[in-house]
Amino acid sequence: MIPYGRQEVTEDDIRVVNDVLRSDWLTQGPAVPHFENAVAGVCGARHAVAVNSATSALHIACMALEVGPGDLVWTSPITFVASANCARYCGAEVDLVDIDLRTFNMSPAALEEKLELAKVHGRLPKVVIAVHFGGQSCDMRQISVLGERYGFRIIEDASHAVGASYLNEPVGNCRYSDISVLSFHPVKIITTGEGGMLLTQDDNLANRLRVLRTHGITRDPAAMAHRPDGEWYYEQTELGFNYRLTDLQAALGLSQLARLGDYIARRRLLADRYDSLLAGLPLVTPWRDPDCSSSWHLYVVRLDASMAARRADVFSGLRRDGIGVNVHYIPIYRQPYYERRGLLRANFPVAETYYSGALTLPLFPGLSEEQQDIVVASLTRFLK
Ligand SMILES: *Cc1c(COP(=O)(O)O)cnc(C)c1O
């Protein structure tokens, strides 16, 4: 089976993880801040806070922005469920903004229209979570303009987008947001097994995130209610979690990060190659936003309307040929959990159109050109 995504683990990666295993620190040691500083540097953010998954990162990002019961959080319907679940962990309700059919990202026009209506009804969101689908940034400039106008905070779910850039600056520098979130799951751009990172320019948010990551505990006397009893003293000031990344994972992440540029160059080369190999087939290849340089986490084609009815057969045929095609994503509002919370398909016509024809083709640095040719040959056969 040619998978749709796959990690690469080198002998160097194995060596650095081995070194941690022989060291004094399996967790809460020096590898975590090393990794944090390196990611902060690559992404151009003042602070980086490592956690055990992007899901955990999204949860404490919402907490740090004071999301709670009675609040609304808006995100894109075409994303992994974690982008929405974080709001529910905080007791807030989720609503969705329809996508742009070219980028598959949240449409700034649909967002503006929905905000205007929400203002009339007094139901404006507290936080908007912008998801950089497939590694291509949302229109963050426009979303941040709307954030100022309608008074919401912004989280970037950049789980797909480490190494991408927007208006010639790295995604993750939070120029247009409060917090950005990265994922290091093995199908993403670089991996720590499981893992995630929060990025922010804000000193107070960074401190709060560090406290929430580790049980709500602080060791900073300035943040304490009581005078320290002695050097052992710490205080739990609020309810946090154990969302820490281990040193084993951080060492792996740091080693992987050294290859970030190579990975993205390879993904881009394969994406360019798909574009030319697929020309002439009844499908739409990914649109490239001139404001963005994508990290190419996903290569998604949309079958033409004439073919979309046969998408399930095309999918099954490709899988039988050993090609791990996928569909990203089943829209959030189609998930029974969210249907029960009142989200209606009829409100998201563009996401429905997208979902009816979307197909993710294999794309990862270790994909060979021969394998890519096999994918294209098989797809061509099923689209005949
Ligand atoms: C993978 C992913 C997540 C969750 O990441 P984990 O690290 O697996 O928790 C969240 N949002 C998006 C858009 C993702 O693709």
Q: Number of helical segments? A: 14
Largest sheet: 7 strands, mixed
Instruction: Categorize the overall geometry.
Output: globular
> Count of DSSP E strands?
15
What is the radius of gyration?
21 Å
**Spatial order of strands in the largest sheet:** 1-9-8-5-4-2-3
Give the terminus-to-terminus CA distance.
Answer: 23 Å
Short description:
By secondary structure, this protein is an alpha/beta fold. Helices cover about 40% and strands about 15% of the residues. The longest helix is centred in the last third of the chain and has 19 residues, at about 260-280.
Topology:
Elements: H1 11-21, H2 31-43, E1 47-51, H3 54-64, E2 72-75, H4 82-89, E3 93-96, H5 108-120, E4 127-131, H6 140-150, E5 153-157, E6 165-166, E7 169-170, E8 179-183, E9 196-200, H7 203-213, E10 217-218, E11 235-236, H8 247-257, H9 260-278, E12 283-284, E13 292-293, E14 299-303, H10 305-308, H11 311-320, H12 336-339, H13 349-357, E15 358-361, H14 369-382
Parallel strand pairs: 2-3, 2-4, 4-5, 5-8
Antiparallel strand pairs: 1-9, 6-7, 6-13, 8-9, 10-11, 12-14, 14-15
